[in-house]
Amino acid sequence: MTQTFGEYRENLPDDHEFLILGFSPKSISIQQRWRNNGLSADFIADYLTTFFPINEDYSNTQATQAEVKSAVSYIANELLENAMKFHDESSSYPIKFGIYLLEDAALTVVLQATNSVSSPTLDKFQAFVEELTTSDPEELVVRQLEKNAEDENSHASGLGLLTMLNDWNTKLGWKIETVQQDPEIVTVTTVVQLVI
């Protein structure tokens, strides 16, 4: 089974700058790794900005680098947190994270995170993705805030993805795929495209 939603970008080229990280749930628990997400996200943002072209207006380049670094750090942190929070604890499938700097029609940063997911979590996630891809993002923020206020025990606010859409005008896409049959392992790959 393979399904895609939103603006999922397949087959990212390896002839541009990219970085791929893997987090094994066997080495230390995903919950223990949680505290390192910010550190990993900052590293990813620092790594990416070293590849930015410098133009004649160096001060403008520095401002752009700082803005992109902040956005990439936030997005990477959200993707890592979501991947670890919703990872199927019974699975030994690693969490994978990748970042790509592409020179398409415009300079584009593509971030992706892949994690395994349990069936109950997948059902809730698919419902949220359906709502996210068919609703106005600004209206959905208000609905999510109201929903979160009503359910204080919820661990899935959805506000990180909505912030990406509203604050940085990103494109979001998802791929749900069965990668193993026995035992069944289903993965979710979230792709975020940030045009610079």
What does this structure look like?
This protein has 196 residues and is of the alpha+beta class. The protein has one domain. The chain contains six helices and six strands; from the N terminus they run E-E-H-H-H-E-E-H-H-H-E-E. A six-stranded antiparallel sheet has the order 1-5-6-4-3-2, with helices on one face. The model has no long low-confidence stretch (mean pLDDT 88).
Count of alpha/pi helices: 6
Q: Per the principal axes of the C-alpha atoms, what is the gross shape?
A: globular
How much of the polypeptide forms β-strand, as a percent range?
25-35%
Number of DSSP strands? 6
- Ends: how far apart? 34 Å
* H-E string: EEHHHEEHHHEE
The structural domain count equals 1
Average residue pLDDT: 88
Task: List descriptors.
globular; six-stranded antiparallel sheet; 196 residues; 27% strand
How would you concisely characterize the structure shown here?
With 196 residues, the chain is an alpha+beta fold.
Q: Could you outline the blueprint of secondary structure elements for this entry?
A:
Layout: E1 2-6, E2 17-23, H1 30-33, H2 37-49, H3 58-85, E3 95-103, E4 107-117, H4 119-134, H5 137-150, H6 159-168, E5 171-180, E6 185-195
Antiparallel strand pairs: 1-5, 2-3, 3-4, 4-6, 5-6
Helix pairs in contact: 2-3, 5-6
